[in-house]
Specification:
Blueprint lengths: L1 H22 L2 E6 L2 E6 L4 E6 L9 H29 L11
Antiparallel strand pairs: 1-2, 2-3
Length: 98
């Protein structure tokens, strides 16, 4: 029983280390006048909109550009996360799930 508790503690420690490493990563993407920055915790840390996107009547284009920038940033960050996890030894063997 204590062996399993140690394994879970080790797993939790690895997860915390991985989370802190990923938090240091940052991705910035641009889409039609919208610039979006996302960190490794998948939090949007900055949004910048060009002046011409703020003109009247461009609301739907702005919304679409924001959605595209977010989707692109998410995909790029997921690739970065996968690479970091691979560098750190991949996913550990979890007892009962392997």
């Amino acid at each position: 029983m204590f062996n399993k508790l140690k394994q879970f503690k080790d797993l939790r420690d690895q997860a915390k280390e991985m989370q802190s490493k990923l938090a240091e990563e940052s991705i910035t993407t641009k889409s039609n006048g919208v610039e979006l920055t996302m960190n490794g915790n998948l939090e949007i840390t900055n949004v910048s909109v060009s002046e011409d996107m703020l003109e009247v009547g461009k609301k739907s284009k702005l919304e679409s550009s924001f959605k595209d920038a977010h989707s692109d940033a998410l995909k790029k960050m997921q690739r970065v996360m996968a690479m970091k996890m691979k560098e750190m030894g991949g996913l550990p063997n979890i007892p009962g799930l392997s």
